[in-house]
Write a structure and sequence with these properties.
The structure is a single chain. This protein is an alpha+beta fold. It contains eight helices and twelve strands. The protein folds into two domains: 2-139, Sandwich (Jelly Rolls); 143-222, Arc Repressor Mutant, subunit A (Orthogonal Bundle). 43% of the residues lie in helices and 26% in strands.
Length: 223
């Protein structure tokens, strides 16, 4: 069952999971394909079944900001589904991706009928709010090296694979995406990655980043 790999459904009885399996839809998206746009009506709650997607916001200045990157099991657009207002940001596939789609009315029933789901959702929203608050403060006063180090550590904890040479992270992000994630320019990100690589803290192989010295990266993230 596809829902077994999604956090909100874990802990529910097999009978309940099968019930929700019968009312969901699975949609496939190609790399770079838009899943939904900012301002669209909140008709669906989205879960990542496979692949990587990004949630981003475009501004009148022409700049974009990536609000989050989500892999398998990630839940997207829960706030819009709950309050009924249009999606506040857009969502796009970073890689080929499969999304679980649940209609808003079914999603609201799913939340209200299962207290454990509502609790998990509140905890997840709390974490997201804390992260956004922390990121806003960081962008205002902290260096790009600090922000990049924090982002790499977060991705390492989220999707890193441990090996003999360190923690390997397959980011699936372009340098432009990475810049938008931490609120800087493409050129500055490239310089910071090069600096960290010259110092032996990380190694960059295409879109894979290997953290060789996590302790040094953590020190930079705390500065």
């Amino acid at each position: 069952m596809v829902l077994e790999n999604i956090g909100l459904f874990q802990g529910l009885s097999t009978e309940k999971v099968e019930k929700y399996e019968s009312i969901i839809e699975i949609k496939a998206y190609k790399k770079n394909e838009v899943i939904f746009n900012e301002g669209d009506p909140p008709d669906f709650l989205w879960f990542v079944a496979d692949g990587e997607v990004k949630v981003f916001k475009d501004y009148a200045s022409g700049k974009s900001a990536i609000m989050g990157v989500f892999g398998q099991g990630g839940t997207i657009a829960e706030v819009a589904v709950i309050d009924g207002n249009p999606y506040p940001a857009s969502c796009q596939a970073i890689t080929d991706a499969k999304m679980v789609v649940m209609k808003r009315e079914d999603a609201l029933e799913f939340m209200t009928a299962n207290p454990s789901v509502a609790h998990k959702l509140m905890m997840a929203l709390g974490r997201k709010l804390r992260e956004i608050t922390s990121n806003l403060g960081s962008m205002a006063v902290q260096s790009v090296t600090h922000r990049l180090s924090r982002f790499l550590l977060k991705m390492a904890d989220k999707m890193g694979e441990e090996g003999e040479d360190g923690t390997r992270i397959k980011l699936f992000l372009t340098r432009k995406d990475l810049a938008e994630c931490i609120g800087t320019s493409f050129e500055v990100v490239v310089r910071c990655l090069s600096k960290l690589q010259k110092e032996g803290i990380i190694e960059v192989e295409g879109k894979t980043v290997i953290i060789h010295n996590r302790m040094a990266l953590e020190d930079l993230a705390e500065e």
